[in-house]
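Appendix B, Record 12. Input sequence as logged:
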Amino acid sequence: MLSKINEKLEEASMVQFMGKFDKNPFLLRFKGREYPIGAGVPRFVVDFKEVIPVSELLNSTSIALGEAYMDGKIEIEGNLYEALDAFLGQMGKFSTDETALKKLIHTSLSKKNQEKEVTSHYDIGNDFYKLWLDETLSYSCAYFKNPEDTLYQAQVNKADYILQKLNLKEGMSLLDIGCGWGYLLIEAVKKYKVKGTGITLSQEQYKEFQKRILEEGLEDDLTVELMDYRDLPKKGKQYDRVVSVGMVEHVGRENYQLFIDSVSQVMKDGGAFLLHFISALKEHPGDAWIKKYIFPGGVVPSLREMIHAMAEDDFHVMDVENLRLHYNKTLLCWEKNYRESLEQVRKMFDERFVRMWDLYLSACAATFHNGIIDLHQILVTKGVNNGWPMVRWY
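Logged structural output:
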């Protein structure tokens, strides 16, 4: 009898907590009992198989709901992305006990730990990523020039767009910090006849990139190294152009200036640097569930703190562009490909992992759509470059 009373009290507390997310109407269901949240016709149903204690929701709403979904304690009736799109626009109402979660939210910025954090995500396995990325193996925001562009075409567009912005000339040297599987550098070497260098901390990406270099016959013009960005100045080499796509999110807020300093030290005067990164309107420590399960140590910079760090090294901003909705569309393409590959994914991983990645891709698409996070490209020159084209030729 006591356990039933306690469950009723926990149920009432859970419903009360969830009731504040009432911007878009939905139906909360628990053991056949239904509770309408918000005014109007429910857009989706959240079916709780078990009560989630309010203490867990208060400690981290994100982790509590995320883990419940991963464990099958929550099922969504309706499209997962559409439900998250309606719900995650209210992330300002989430609770996070930053004191209790201090070790999770603020991890070590040592080289050893950051290498461990990066490889935990990117070394899941090339075979896994090949299931749902496009043929270029580009794991960053695509660029949809036309509504009918496929994911592959949009990723080709993105690489072309970045290389055009860099105003490359034959014989120049190009460094890619966080080069992934190498498509951007391969395109740069083939189309612009530059000398390319890529660095990564991922063993899997390193091996795949080396393989691609050999397949393309680019050994004389393109190299890839396993290296931390902090070690770049020690190499004593300077580059005409530097690009970094989706990497600065892994360096940690305290190291943003160090990252920009490292870029500055390996750039020639008058050279250009393009930074492509997930950004936020204001500085915040990041989502606890994402940090625990997807990107350990990941922090999303604000646009203004990146601009500030660049100014300290005499980087002159030439252009800033927001590609937020392009990332929403990119993620929806990835999520579609992922769902179409679930049979193969289940042969590689358990059901908890399968649900976790489905949630991750759909949730990220929703956060971009709601403007919780943005995608910015900043183009800067090292010092004043009066020879830079006055018109956006790209």
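The chain has 16 helices and eleven strands.
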